[in-house]
Amino acid sequence: MDKIRLVIASDNSSARRGLTAIFNAENVFMVQGDYTLGEVVDKSISLQPDTILLDMPDGVAVDEREISRIKKECPCSLVMALVENEPRETVAEILKWGIDGCIPRGIMRSCLVNTVELACRAGILCLPGSFKKIVSGEKTKLPNYNGSGRINKYDNGNNENLTRREMEILQLMANNYSNREIATQLFISEPTVKTHVSSILRKLGQNNRAQAIVYSFKNGLVDNVHMEVK
After folding, report:
1. I need a labelling partner for 61 at 20 to 30 A (CA). Which of 1, 108, 144, 152 fits?
2. DSSP result, 116-176
3. Full DSSP string of 159-225
4. What is the pLDDT of residue 137?
5. In the prediction, which pLDDT does 60 show?
6. pLDDT(86) > 80
7. What SS3 class is residue 51?
């Protein structure tokens, strides 16, 4: 199995060295380099890593335009952020930019490694365990199905209706199921799951799974959401 190519970025030189040592000690990773947050955009575009890990202790430490540029120029790279227990507005803003997952900075070493590996290998993305509490105050009513088996549109957006199958997949996504696990659970093929996931993201107007999960929880599209890594 090919190694996961990883780029690490932090404005703290000690943090860069520590993170580099952690991932270099694992056979599944190849750290391509560690850089400051100001350097990481150009370096990532040049290296095209599988994952970019941003150390963001102050929340908004990277300009939104820089994240957008990374996502545009590195379409196959996952962008993950190490964050503190940020206020609701800060975490929501980070995810809005297109960050694929947020990992608590205090996470155990082994859990950090497993989280990044799961994101790359299985498409399981992480949010802080406390994030459910952060967004719970904004939860609205649960959706109602109409006769066609589709959920009714919401007045606060332009999203198209989700089918009943898409709602099933969205619920499983919210509970950290990978595409393969969803396929097994619903007795469908993995390519079919990927097609449904793409459709869900498009209809909800979200860029990635993390954003779709947060949006869906806030708008009552899913319930019993487990944000913790399995």
Report:
1. 108
2. HHHHHHH------TTHHHHHHTT--PPP-B-TTSBBPPPTT--PPPPBHHHHHHHHHHHTT
3. PPPPBHHHHHHHHHHHTT--HHHHHHHHT--HHHHHHHHHHHHHHHT-SSHHHHHHHHHHTTS--S-
4. 43
5. 53
6. no
7. strand
- Residue 227 corresponds to which amino acid? M
- CA distance to 9, 29, 52, 159, 188, per residue, from 67 (Å): 13, 23, 11, 24, 34
pLDDT over 60 at 61, yes or no: no
Domains annotated for the chain, with CATH where assigned, are 4-128 (3.40.50.2300), 134-218 (1.10.10.10)
- % the chain with pLDDT above 70: 72
pLDDT computed for residue 33 by the predictor: 96
State how far the Cα of 169 lies from the Cα of 196, in Å rounded to an integer.
Answer: 8
Q: Which positions ≥6 away from 2 have C-beta within 8 Å?
A: none
β-bridge mates for residue 104, sequence order = 83
Under DSSP, is residue 59 helix (H, G, I), strand (E, B) or coil? coil
Rounded CA-CA distance 206/150 in Å is: 19
More confident residue, 223 or 188: 188
Render pLDDT for 22-53 as a digit per residue (tens, 0 to 9): 999 999 999 999 999 889 999 999 999 999 99
Tokens for 156, please give them: 């606060």
Phi/psi region, residue 86 (left: phi>0; alpha: psi -120 to 50; beta: rest), is beta
